[in-house]
């Protein structure tokens, strides 16, 4: 007897639960852990810069399906590597960005759309702080 793969509806419901937990955690972390937010800002800034965008929200708006899929694969691989290496804050930063990316595909759900806006605002603020502390030097 083989187990059936979960339906899209089941996977979406599970994601929504994990997303809600991440949102609650990011809200708490934002008040308590500047290092984790700095890592989020650094990573999101690097990705936005590679897409020639000023912040995470703008970067998300221009990614292609291929880039989306590639990013999720990299996030999964790197997140697992960081987790196994005991770099929990690095894994946390990747998880926040991955959740934001996936949430963008579920905007038809009003709760997801609101959660995505909140998470993206936190990420964009983290990018702005990172950029203010690490100004781009032009030659």
Features:
6 helices, 139 residues, globular, 0% strand, mainly alpha
Question: Could you characterize the architecture of this molecule?
Answer:
The model has no long low-confidence stretch (mean pLDDT 91). The longest helix is centred in the first third of the chain and has 25 residues. It is built from 6 helices and no strands. Helix content is 78%, strand content 0%. The chain is mainly α. The N and C termini lie far apart (64 Å).
Structure in a nutshell:
By secondary structure, the chain is mainly α.
Oligomer type: single chain
String of helices and strands:
HHHHHH
Number of distinct helices: 6
Q: Between the first and last Cα atoms, what is the distance in angstroms?
A: 64 Å
User: Based on CA inertia axes, which overall geometry fits?
Assistant: globular
- Average pLDDT works out at 91
User: What percentage of amino acids are in beta strands?
Assistant: under 5%
Low-confidence stretches: none
Q: What can be said about the biggest beta sheet?
A: none
Helical content class: over 70%
> How many beta strands in the DSSP annotation?
0
Tell me the layout of helices and strands.
Elements: H1 8-32, H2 34-50, H3 56-62, H4 65-84, H5 88-103, H6 110-133
């Amino acid at each position: 007897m083989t187990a059936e793969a979960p339906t899209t509806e089941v996977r979406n419901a599970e994601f929504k639960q994990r997303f809600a937990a991440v949102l609650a955690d990011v809200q708490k972390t934002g008040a308590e852990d500047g290092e984790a937010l700095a890592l989020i800002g650094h990573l999101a800034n690097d990705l936005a810069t590679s897409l020639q965008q000023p912040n995470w929200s703008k970067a998300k708006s221009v990614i292609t399906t291929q880039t989306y899929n590639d990013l999720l694969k990299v996030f999964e691989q790197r997140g697992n590597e960081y987790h196994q290496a005991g770099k929990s804050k690095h894994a946390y930063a990747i998880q926040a960005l991955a959740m934001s990316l996936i949430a963008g595909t579920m905007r038809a759900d009003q709760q997801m759309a609101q959660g995505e806006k909140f998470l993206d605002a936190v990420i964009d603020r983290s990018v702005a702080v990172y950029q203010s502390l690490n100004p781009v030097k032009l030659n």
